[in-house]
Amino acid sequence: MTRTVLVTGVARHIGARVASVLASDPGISRVIGVDTVPPPTPARDGGPAPGGVPLGRTEFVRVDLRSPDIAQVIAAADIDTVVHVDLMSAPRALMKEHNVIGTMQLLGACQRSPLIRRVVVRSTTEVYGSSARDPAVFTEDAEPPETPSHGFAKDAVEVEGYVRGFARRRPDVTVTTLRFADFMGPGVDSPLTRYFGRPVLPTVLGFDPRLQFVHVDDGVEVLRRVTMEDRPGTFNVAGDGVLLLSQCVRRAGRPTMPLPSPAFGVLGELAGRVGLADFSPEQIRLMCHGRAVDTTRLADELGWKPKFTTAAAFDDFLRSLGRDADGGPLAALIGRIEEEFGR
Amino acid sequence: MSHDESYATVVPIDAAARGRAGSAPPGDDRLIELLDFVRRRLAGEYEIDEFGFDHELTDKVLLELLRPLYRHWFRVETLGLDNVPAEGGALVVANHSGTVPVDALMLQVAMHDEAHRPVRLLGADLVYELPVLGHLSRKTGHTLACREDADRLLRKGELVGVFPEGFKGVGKPFRDRYKLQRFGRGGFVASAIRAGVPIIPCAIVGAEEIYPKIGELRTLARALGLPYLPVTPLFPWLGPLGLIPLPSKWMIEFGEPVRTDECDPDAADDPATVFNFTDHVREIIQQRLDDLRLRRGPAFPPLF
């Protein structure tokens, strides 16, 4: 059976990587990549441009998901598989319409198409929110005590709602929802990666949240697998283990600036206004209470686990910033003293 | 230095560099171990479990700080340690008292030092809303008292501890000492039944006298969002000095396990079964408390 796959959000890193890996799969006849802006073009004389991922034989169509044009693309290209990775977390003003209306249009188009067999949607573990009353580890069926009411996380909750509605109306279509932990690794640009890239890291005084990451390579591999195989359902995707924020900043060897939580919000807003960082209310909550998810279901279903643990994904991200994960000058110094003593 | 050790220089350099070649004098070994510990802590190179339990920090630092209090201040004695299984899931159910939950800390030291198992306590959500307390609680192995976490820990074969009285127990007035309060909805029993693990009744005597609560500041407590703000003979009159717990004599007894594996896991959803178990466990603990209190004698021997 020939397969024609539509990938959304190919102008961004994850979308481009997924399109690229699908394009190199001989089992897929065509890969159509869509986005509102053209993907950054790889340099002419071979090798990807900075930030650019070679898209191979992916055919790019410039279309806004919020417009009904997407239905024409799906019909014209005889698309049978849709991989929807295009969720954006910034800028906030555009985001909601893009995420929610875009998904509605896309699913509406899928519903009308008789050829669609499989829909894969990228979601986020942010749908579980983050609060003091959370269970330590969320399984896919867990009902969070407080569902997110702001921003990206709320969008993701709404997107998942529309996806469930679609799955009910089209029981003949295999629908897979992947709830990804925060991506880490080379090329990833997210509020959290921007945060860890700073010279001084603000933290919430008296809180040390548990964080979980998934390496972008593993994320792409999971998306590839569920695109190629029938794996209906909702799955958490995260690297094994958890890291405390304190462990992360120590690994990064960066100084922290603990702020009481109200100050964190105000400062975050100020920083956001000058374009430094965006601390949404969700992120501040994450910085207090953290979140961890259970990934047993994914491992059982796919018979596969992410190659990178949470810690390994974070260390690889640090390396991509050109930093050692040696824990900063003091730890390195003690390491040297130890060696001296050992001799 | 002995004669053998003078040959230390012929140890291959890479083995020596690993620091534990046994070539260095014992003092150096310990120093290297300490340096290594400090370096790994500074570099974030240690593991915590998914609940946030930092095994190393708990064993090497936090329990060390509590031990003097356990050994010398409260002179804790333990009884019935045979009733704590050496491995596998089990649920320790204990009475809660003392105005400030010091009993939870002492139970943790007792479990670690005498039963050689880490206890994973289930705490109120207030603990996790407060700064410092929340993450310290996670780092020492404890988590939120909710069905998901209790089930998950028991399934993993952990030794879980609960105080079903909650704030009603820990914050009760001094005149009600050693009177067990209501045991909530018996959620802990349901978790034990689902996991098929034994319930180990535990009586803690001594905590009631550390901060005798003779009154409370209701308005201030409400303003601060706290369940209560105690008045004791020393607090708030003596200021920070009033925070020093009175050195009462403590005893902790573990009773015979109550088996739950004989009933169907589905019985966890049957309120009658759950309430029966809850009452049964509560009676055992009350009885153990009364006996143990007699056995202990005066709270502040040899005075009164």
Automatic annotation (TrEMBL), chain A:
**Listed Pfam families:** Epimerase
* InterPro entries linked: Epimerase_deHydtase (IPR001509), Lipid_A_modif_metabolic_enz (IPR050177), NAD(P)-bd_dom_sf (IPR036291)
**Top-level taxonomic group:** Bacteria
User: Which residue numbers delimit the NAD-dependent epimerase/dehydratase domain?
Assistant: 5-238
The protein's name in its UniProt record = NAD-dependent dehydratase
**Native organism:** Spongiactinospora gelatinilytica
Mind giving the lineage of the organism this protein is from?
A: Bacteria, Bacillati, Actinomycetota, Actinomycetes, Streptosporangiales
From TrEMBL, chain B:
Highest taxon of the source? Bacteria
One of the record's GO cellular component terms: membrane
- InterPro entries assigned to the protein according to its UniProt record, in alphabetical order: P_lipid/glycerol_AcTrfase_prd, Plipid/glycerol_acylTrfase
Q: Which parts of the sequence belong to the Phospholipid/glycerol acyltransferase domain?
A: 90-207
Record keyword Aminoacyl-tRNA synthetase present: no
Q: Which SMART domains match?
A: PlsC (SM00563)
**UniProt-recorded Gene Ontology molecular function terms:** acyltransferase activity
Give start-end of the signal peptide. none
Q: Which UniProt keywords apply?
A: Acyltransferase, Transferase
Do you know which PANTHER family this protein is assigned to?
MONOACYLGLYCEROL_DIACYLGLYCEROL O-ACYLTRANSFERASE, TRANSMEMBRANE PROTEIN 68
Q: Any idea what this protein is called?
A: Glycerol acyltransferase
The organism is Spongiactinospora gelatinilytica
